[in-house]
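USER:
Try writing one entry.

ASSISTANT:
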Amino acid sequence: MASYSEIAETQKSLEKSVNKMLSKFEARMKSPASRATVSSLSEEFSSFKDHTLGMLKLLRSQISALSKTQDILEMRHRRKYLLFKGVPEDPGENIVSSITSIVTERLKIPDVSADSFKACHRLGKPSEGRARPILVRFADMRLKSLVWQKKTACKGSTFAISEFLTPHRQELFTQARKAFGMKSCWSLDGNIFVKLSSGVRERVEDIRRGMENQMVTVLILVDFSNAFNTVDHEILLALLEHLNVSPCALNWFSAYLCGRQQALQKSQATETGKVKDGICALLPA
């Protein structure tokens, strides 16, 4: 795991090497006696580019490792908390009393008092017509676990109980629910789980880590909605040429994409215009 000092040292090293190389290039360009050729400058620039990209890759990996460690430590602290949602909000409310009532009456857990909680408070700024969630820190982890086990007793009421996830894990949870549905996603001790169509239960973080380690991944969900409709034809052709696509294939793409028109009919009038971007609309039905 990279430490903050290691990341700072990488950043300083990168800045030093970049500034040194830029100064070298600038001096050679300004020197009247310079005999630098395009070829030599190209080789130096290529070496400089590879070095810079390598340093940036190292910096990104160090920041990623530090971010993961920070997320783990933060989630370890958040395991002591639960979020109570849908609890009516009143100006003179007694939040501890409200939570105690839900735990004892709704969840049927006895021997719970104000001393069972170390902290209870609303999250966020007040908003009209919407009750803010209540963040509860339990004095005893056993009570917290019992409340979490019995959270399904809140079904049919306005209340809901969820884990206090870190922003990163909350984003994973939100995306997983969008992809797999609410009933196929859940969290436990800060970990996000999904139930695949095959019935297999998988931890979301395991899928992500497997992709990073270039392991075989069963399912990847990516939303490319309307992405191809933004492709500029001239840029696409230039990119294909840069990738050394054969002249024959390049001419075929050019003939297919260039000179296209689209028509829009309004009542008795018809308007035409050139199609400069988009691929989906040009594909044959």
